[in-house]
């Protein structure tokens, strides 16, 4: 079955890693069709706005998008284009896997295989009620947690565990101090967990979670938490396995899903052909899972691992002398076999 996906090439190194990713997907013969759309600085230059209506229409029609990093201008427009996309399409679940890869500069060369499921639409990032007092001495904002938001993200985590054969969900909170907001999240999480007796559930305070992650990450399987905690924890987990160059992300809603590399646009190396495409390729693997192509997703991940093991055309950040496209071609040769 053919699928049409919206492709957003993005800014900085975005077009380079997108070209590399599409080269690999095409080599696999998956029958994917691409509809190009603009966002970020590229869209501002071409259309005079950061997030054109045509891009929104494309994502809404195709229901799946693959997105390279975007640059949000300082001091104008949205606080974040990514946050704006999550709001407009109600992409409530941010799903970030962290898996050990061979031949990477990381503390843990094996043993890490976990997923952070982060609530994506409320909490500290909702930016409600932000204001600074007239004298500039006091800043305030509202952090809002709802039963609906808590229930659906925790349920998503448990359903993900069942679907992928994972055995444990860790609920991360700060209910000992934030008794209203984090307290509600924890209360709802306990109610949902009771409906999944086949999945082990434990609870950890967020600061203890961070300590445990850097000491014994193998004890974690799926972590589910609120927006700000999830943002911090998922980047910490990326650091365990070699950095953001190996960190994909999925933003899942009821009707639409956007898959991405979670790192930035890296303008300092844009155009040099040395950017590591793995994060976006791993995001594409998440997309294939979402499209009902798990065997192809596994094949893509296996090809990435095999290429890293062989040290075949690795980019400079991975200790090699390859280019973005030579690395992609090495992966494609294995994925297409």
From TrEMBL:
Keyword Oxidoreductase set for record = yes
SMART domains the record matches? Iso_dh (SM01329)
InterPro entries from the xrefs? Answer: IsoCit/isopropylmalate_DH_CS, IsoPropMal-DH-like_dom
Isopropylmalate dehydrogenase-like domain residues are 4-331
Q: In the Enzyme Commission scheme, what number(s) does this protein have?
A: 1.1.1.41
Q: Which SUPFAM superfamilies match?
A: Isocitrate/Isopropylmalate dehydrogenase-like
Alphabetized Gene3D superfamilies for the sequence: Isopropylmalate Dehydrogenase
**Which class of enzymes does this protein belong to?**
oxidoreductase
Q: Name one Pfam family in it.
A: Iso_dh
Identify the keywords attached in UniProt to this record, alphabetized: Oxidoreductase
User: Record's family?
Assistant: Belongs to the isocitrate and isopropylmalate dehydrogenases family.
For this entry, the protein name equals Isocitrate dehydrogenase
């Amino acid at each position: 079955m053919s699928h049409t996906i919206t492709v957003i090439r993005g800014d900085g190194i975005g077009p380079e890693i997108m070209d590399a990713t599409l080269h690999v997907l095409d080599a696999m013969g998956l029958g994917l069709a691409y509809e190009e759309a603009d966002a970020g600085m590229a869209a501002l230059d071409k259309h005079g706005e950061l997030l054109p209506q045509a891009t929104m229409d494309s994502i809404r029609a195709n229901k799946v998008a693959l997105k390279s990093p975007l640059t949000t201008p300082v001091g104008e427009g949205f606080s974040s284009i990514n946050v704006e996309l999550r709001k407009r399409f109600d992409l409530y679940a941010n799903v970030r896997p962290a898996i050990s890869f061979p031949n990477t500069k990381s503390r843990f060369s094996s043993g890490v295989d976990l997923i952070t499921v982060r609530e994506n639409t409320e909490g500290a990032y909702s930016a409600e009620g932000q204001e600074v007092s007239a004298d500039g001495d006091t800043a305030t904002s509202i952090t809002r947690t709802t039963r609906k938001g808590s229930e659906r993200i925790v349920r998503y985590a448990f359903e993900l565990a069942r679907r992928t054969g994972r055995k444990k969900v860790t609920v991360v909170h700060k209910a000992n101090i934030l008794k209203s907001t984090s307290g509600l999240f924890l209360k709802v999480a306990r109610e949902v967990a009771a409906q999944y007796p086949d999945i082990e559930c434990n609870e950890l305070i967020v600061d203890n979670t961070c300590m445990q992650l850097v000491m014994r990450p193998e004890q974690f399987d799926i972590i589910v938490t609120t927006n700000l905690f999830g943002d911090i924890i998922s980047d910490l987990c990326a650091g365990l396995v070699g950095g953001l160059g190996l960190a994909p992300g999925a933003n899942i809603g009821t009707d639409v899903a956007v898959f991405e590399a979670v790192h930035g646009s890296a303008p300092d190396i844009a155009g040099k052909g040395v950017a590591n495409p793995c994060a976006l390729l791993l995001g594409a693997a998440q997309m294939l899972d979402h499209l009902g192509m798990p065997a192809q997703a596994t094949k893509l991940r296996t090809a990435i691992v095999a290429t890293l093991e062989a040290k075949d055309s690795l980019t400079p950040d991975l200790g090699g002398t390859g280019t973005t496209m030579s690395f992609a071609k090495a992966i494609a040769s294995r994925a297409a076999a």
